[in-house]
Amino acid sequence: MGVFLPEPEGTGAGPRLTVLVIDDDPLARAATAARVRGFGLTVVEAETWDRAAKLLRRGRIRLVLTDLCHEARPVAGGPPWVAVTGRMEAGLEHRLLAAGFAGVLLKPLKAGDLEPILRRHGIGITDTVCGAAGAEAPREKIWRQFLDLVAEAPEKYQSLGELVQGPRPRWLGTLESKLAAGSLAECRALVHRWKGVFDVMGEDAIAAILGRAERAAAAESVADLRAEVEALGAGLKAFRKRRGGELAAVLGEV
Question: What does pTM read for this prediction?
Answer without folding.
Answer: 0.53
